[in-house]
Amino acid sequence: MDTAGNFKTSSIELDLDRPNIEDYLPSGSSIQEPRGKLRLRDLLDISPTLTEAAGAIVDDSFTRCFKSNPPEPWNWNVYLFPLWCCGVVIRYGILFPVRVLVLTIGWIIFLSSYIPVHFLLKGHDKLRKKVEVSIIYLLKFLLFLRVIYMYIREQNCENLVFLYFNVLKSPEVVLANCAQCIPYFLIYSQRCLVELICMFFVASWTGVVKYHGPRPSIRPKQVFVSNHTSMIDFIILEQMTAFAVIMQKHPGWVGLLQSTILESVGCIWFNRAEAKDREIVAKKLRDHVQEADNNPLLIFPEGTCVNNHYTVMFKKGAFELDSTVCPIAIKYNKIFVDAFWNSRKQSFTKHLLQLMTSWAVVCDVWYLEPQNLRPGETPIEFAERVRDIISVRAGLKKVPWDGYLKYSRPSPKHRERK
């Protein structure tokens, strides 16, 4: 913690076993080493005991939020071990290759359709106009064929003359309609293609997802918030609705997808290490929710992945936009695999491989009743009320911790004592 009282963050996640307890104690309660002759007050000083007790409490309720819960061993006996071996052969030898093939086919279909659409929308106005003109001439040709068909069928010269002079001789009308519709068609195609590739991702895990409640619709001044277990939360929600999500900027192939594909649906990126990003992102959020044509805004207000047993404090930024908040609750069934992504121990690629080599990913998604800020209610109270709604619906335990504590540095004094 610095002199201003803010936690220092880094661009990478530190492997901390427990948070810095000294940050939760008053400034005057630091432990002093006895100097010289021991006194009675030194012997009666119980601050070390209190520190250890506080550490146990914090470790119990904080670090458990970010720990994976491996299943209990069940296959170490004579009659279950052979069945487990058969399951391993099926999962790795049959299901995994089939899932890789499905995902590969999905990427081929997606890229072959997405690249031309993205190319036309990304600043290639001349080429797009040529395409528009080509479509216009195609429509005129189809109209001409229809005129010939009507003439042959009915032998009606009046219809022929009327259609020719009122349709084929009015290219400016067709041009205006086509020029206005084609960009919207391309944008809609991008949304559908992003939903399509997310469907292929879910299929590659044999995802069994049950959605409850009405499907989200595109409306101005509304924002969707959800609890956060893994990056696959976004994929599961995106396959139903093309959300614009607020997400940490990632390196590698995930970052490449963020800057190319996901940017086309209006996603917003930030970097925890950059304090100025908060103001920029806040402005982008306010501008995004005001536009009726933008994709629905999806925010994970916890700010980090939690193991789907707990919910940590919600950031108030999503609740200061003067918009309707639509809660979404996600609950994973760990019968086949734990969907929690512990980013401190594994990359997202390894996390996907873990899902693709499991039997299935089972989860429930609830679209809950929209909520609005009540009179006299602060954004923090509003955030806690929405968190309570999500926690109750998904059966999660609320804890009074800020998820960003996971990224804080321990003080040098604490590390020396350890």
From TrEMBL:
Domain Phospholipid/glycerol acyltransferase: 222-333
Keywords, in A-Z order: Acyltransferase, Lipid biosynthesis, Lipid metabolism, Membrane, Phospholipid biosynthesis, Phospholipid metabolism, Transferase, Transmembrane, Transmembrane helix
Residue ranges crossing the lipid bilayer per the database entry: 76-94, 100-121, 133-152
InterPro entries: LPCAT1-like, Plipid/glycerol_acylTrfase
Compartment list: Membrane
GO cellular component: endoplasmic reticulum; membrane
Molecular function terms, GO-annotated: glycerol-3-phosphate O-acyltransferase activity
CDD domains: LPLAT_LPCAT1-like (cd07991)
Keyword match tRNA processing: no
Superkingdom field: Eukaryota
Primary site of residence: membrane
Pathway of action: Lipid metabolism
Keyword hit for Cell membrane: no
Family: Belongs to the 1-acyl-sn-glycerol-3-phosphate acyltransferase family.
Name of the molecule in the record: Phospholipid/glycerol acyltransferase domain-containing protein
